[in-house]
Amino acid sequence: MKTLSKALLALSASSVLAMSANAAISYGTSEAAQPYVGVKVGTIDADQIDGNVTSYGVYGGYNFDQNFGVEAEYMGSDTKDFNIGATPVEGDVKTYGVYGTYRYNFNNTPIYAKGKLGVAKTEVNVEGRNSSSSINSNTDETGIAGGVALGYKPTANFGVELGYNYLSSDANMAAIGAHFAF
User: Fold this and answer.
1) Which residue, among 143, 91, 82, 86, has the nearest Cα to 117 in the 3D structure?
2) 43 neighbors 52 (Cβ within 8 angstroms)
3) How do beta strands 171-181 and 111-129 pair?
4) Do 135 and 116 form a contact (C-beta atoms < 8 A)?
5) Cα 132–137–139 angle (5° rounding)?
6) Is 10 helix (H, G, I), strand (E, B) or coil?
């Protein structure tokens, strides 16, 4: 029985190593264009809101080749309650962006680094009221935006990314996303 257990363990280990080696060898060899779509979750730090707000969103893009592509994203946040002086307020953030991307694929690994540069629109809404005052602030800023990410793509059709985006002079975002390419 011990021999059978050792044989099964050795077979399992060699199967995992073979799959890992196959993924490492085949990663990044495709020169074909590839569209992708995904979802993100993260935090947005906007100057008008006290602290970070949790954000959710979608993104999609098109890789023209192994390195260059385009990407669009939308992120919206939960409403966050906080105080400005004695006035209780709530705030939320929405951002839309379009970027050109460059991906650097590390040799023989499914890991890559990605940079992006483009234009983003960031909308921050803060509203509140008490018996003596009210606050209603809506800011809308469109400008140059960019980001960096570290990604892991274990298969040709699936990947995850951890990234940081500069959205505007008043807002930054950190997020993790998962995407499916087809």
Assistant:
1) 143
2) yes
3) unpaired
4) no
5) 170
6) helix
Q: How far apart are CA 110 and CA 93, in angstroms?
A: 33
CA distance 91 to 135: 11
Residue 42 DSSP SS3 = strand
Helix (H) / strand (E) element for 36: namely strand 34-46
Q: Give yes or no for a contact between 45 and 176, defined as CB atoms under 8 angstroms apart.
A: no
Residues with Cβ within 8 Å of 79's Cβ and at least 6 positions away in sequence, in order, are 53, 90, 91, 92
User: Which residue, among 12, 21, 13, 58, has the nearest Cα to 154 in the 3D structure?
Assistant: 21
Residue entry with tokens 């509140």: 128
pLDDT-based confidence at residue 58 (cuts at 50, 70, 90):
very high
Mean pLDDT, the chain, integer: 84
pLDDT tens by residue, 124-161? 998 887 767 777 888 899 999 999 999 999 998 999 99
Tally the C-alpha atoms within 13 A of residue 68's C-alpha that lie toward its C-beta. Answer: 1
What would the pLDDT profile of 74-102 be if each residue is shown by its tens digit?
A: 999 988 888 777 778 899 999 999 999 99
pLDDT at 164 over 80: yes
